Amino acid sequence: MKNVEIYIKSTCSFCVKAKNLLKQNNIKFKEIFVENSTANLSKMIKRSKKTTVPQIFINKVHIGGYEDLIIFLKKNI
Fold first, then answer.
1. Cα(64)–Cα(66) distance, rounded to whole angstroms?
2. Which branch of life, at top level (predicted)?
3. Strands 30-33 and 61-64
4. What does 5-74 look like in DSSP terms, one character per residue?
5. What is the pTM of this model?
6. Structural domain for 57, as ranges
7. Which tens digits make up the pLDDT trace of 20-67?
8. Angle, CA 72 vertex, CA 69 and CA 75 arms, to 5°
9. Considering Cα of 25, then 15, then 17, then 72, what sign does the dihedral take?
10. Which residues contact 41 (CB under 8 A, 6 or more apart)?
């Protein structure tokens, strides 16, 4: 998989789970922290239409959150 981006907060347990799931599947990803960056938060909301984290994009396509990632990986790996 190419170009995986995950919008996260450092205190988010679902963010940690999503990152661990990506790591377990040997998928490299870019972390984008939103807690101290209003610019990153605004971009995440604009792209995903969601205010919760994590928000995951694969090849610029919005996958969703942690549970959505589980479903996506089951179908695509």
1. 7
2. Bacteria
3. unpaired
4. EEEE-TT-HHHHHHHHHHHHTT---EEEE-TT-HHHHHHHHHHHS--SS-EEEETTEEEESHHHHHHHHH
5. 0.94
6. 4-76
7. 999 999 999 999 999 999 999 999 999 999 999 999 999 999 999 999
8. 150
9. negative
10. 34, 35
Q: What is the CATH number of the domain that holds 68?
A: 3.40.30.10
Q: State both tokens at 28.
A: 């490299």
Tokens describing residue 5:
């981006």
Comparing CA positions, the residue from 50, 60, 59 lying closest to residue 14 is 50
**What whole-number distance in Å separates Cα of residue 13 and Cα of residue 55?**
13
Both tokens of residue 27? 């998928």
Number of domains in the chain: 1
Q: How many CB atoms lie within 10 A of CB 29?
A: 18
What's the token pair of residue 63? 């996958």
Report helix, strand or coil for 76. helix
